Description:
Blueprint: H1 3-18, E1 33-38, E2 44-50, E3 55-61, H2 75-88, E4 102-107, H3 117-122, E5 127-132
Parallel strand pairs: 4-5
Antiparallel strand pairs: 1-2, 2-3
Amino acid sequence: MSEQNAYIMKNILQEPIKTGTAAYANVPGWDLAAKTGTTNDDYDRWLCGFTNKYTMAVWYGYDQVEEVKFRGANPAGQIFSAVMKEIHKDLEKEKFKEPKGIVKANICKDSRKSSYRSLLKRSKRRKSIFRNIC
């Protein structure tokens, strides 16, 4: 996988931490990428994520088929958050580094149009990150 593709995947996986289903699991000062999940009928909960220093996956459930009942945030995410905050607390803060070759453009999610349309045409070989602006 190219550096650019890896960066784009990291960028996509930052959304659950920034504004999504794992916003409670943020580690202040660190770029963190994560994915939450559950199985049908709420039998299992999980959260997998990483920073530049550590990668962790937490599964929360039962050996036998049984519904996971809880109040508040995903229990796997709560464990993930507590451990990640603890192991990062004395480390120098780090962000994900953007490699060369990334082209960013604002795209309207309704019209699918961009003010950077000509730039994108000229940059066919570059990887792109699109942000919704409408």
